[in-house]
Amino acid sequence: MVRIQNVYVYSAFGLAISSELPLPELNSLDLPGDNIDVSIKLADFTETKVLLNQEKGFTVHQDEVAFEVPNTALFSIRNGSEIIVVPLKEFDKDRVRLYILGTCMGVLLMQKRILPLHGSAVAVDGKAYAIVGNSGAGKSTLASAFIQEGYKLISDDVIPVTFSQDNVPLIQPSYPQQKLWEESLANFGMDKGKYEPLFERETKYSVPVKASFYNESLPLAGIFELVKSTSESAEIRKADGLEGFRILNHHTFRGSLVQRLGLKKWHFEYSSTILRNVPAFQLIRPVLRFTPYELVAKVVDSMKEGGLG
């Protein structure tokens, strides 16, 4: 881990990140130079001008988004380049890291005009495939099944989508960790005693995947919306027309902020460019049995048959 003048330096989400708070989940950046994209700073009330509405939720003012986790910390995300953390009386580093690497990074990516999707992304034969879905749909579990089958993880939870110079959609790698429920660990035959539970979520665990992490950007070749169903069989359905826009809109990380940040037009244009290049699908997951390996086989078979991008 690199530390320069009391600052740790990392690479994640396609960005060079300096942080006054250690973030051990991230890959360290060996030669950061002066090219830091994001600075994470600790402050107190005398050093910051964070102002929050009395209402619960996010405060949005020009290029700043702020929110409070009661008794833990205030967070301010500014100009797509800075995250300010103001510790409160029950400051807990583990809990704070969850918010920095989740909500804060999702908001910051939007401020940088990078689309954050909520889901997992896997690398298959030199291409990236995004798995999005509602909370509890099984996104991380399906990504873990891809890993068990020898493929690699690119991102979990927040998926950064950028473009190459010739407008090819790319997935940027986040960091080598998954979050899996206890039930998923049991179904995969993984001993939960080997993993750390997430703060206040004792049945969800942090699972390092350094050996199965793909740490370079890859072209996005398909988007799958994972949907739970009481049907008997797993299915793949092409999402045509406006359905692709619905999927990207519904599964943008912290998508409720798009309009408040004045990014509705940007989001539509960004989504249009993605969907011109990348097919979208619904992946139907039966809930009455454990089907991740079956879903992986269906997706991979479709790739081989040329049914996917």
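(the above was protein one; protein two follows)
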Amino acid sequence: MLTRVLAVLTVAAGAAVLAGPGPLPVAGGLLLGFVLPGMALTGALFSGRALSSVERTLLAPALSLGVLVVAGLAIHLTGADLDRLSWTLATAGVTLAALLVTVLRPGQAAVAPPAEEETAPAGATAPSLRLSAQDAEAAAEQHTIVMTVAPAGTELETAATEKSRRLRLVRQLLPLSLVLAILVGASWLSFGTSRELYDTAVTALSATPSGPVDSRGNRTVAVSATGLLAEDAPYTLTVTGTRGTAPSRLVVTVGADGTWSESLSLPGDQRITVNLFRAGDTTAYRTLHISAVE
């Protein structure tokens, strides 16, 4: 029954996120982001054991967050857009897949209870070693220790209790260890992805403040570009004023460090538009506006 309820809630939450009005997308997104994937994975991964309420409370949001991190990295690596549709399909898909695993998993085989050990009747005393007076005196002379023989069942029962306690501790720590492993793995993947993106070159077009206007009405502006890539060369720079004049063009030579800089003589009373084009582009790759000097 719980599996069916979770499946219905997952489909309803996905529909609410994609097409719901008003606050319904928010409610559906919260369920898919923090509750439903974790509950489904808890049932799929730990169906063979009974979980306490504390364990279920911790596992549901923790596993859901792990799904969000791993799904986000997977979507990014596939090149798809990280939008509402991709997030909904990822979280709802993981939830439904986990529920399907729970349904298709064969039932647990019944385990026969352990055979009861024979116990001594109530009131029976433990067997002991009885010695005659002469034997006891001889044993004392020979420094022999006389002790009673304890039943073997007591030691076996103590060992079984200790083993059961260890197994219970391992079962309690297993879910938390799994959550920790998922979060550590997701954090490592996220760190690797961010490091790769950090090394990505970003092209920037900038200009220094305008110099004074000379007697001919022009001012000198130093325009520079950084992050230029040799594979996108040759770059072209166009300079256009506000009076409908034809734009002037010049070819940008990419330096060894991917930078370019040049001082341009521009009209002081006009707002200038500077466009940077990559090879083969008809739309400006970077645009810079330089205001007029008042």
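Reviewer note on protein two: The domain at 204-290 is CATH 2.60.40.10 (Immunoglobulin-like).
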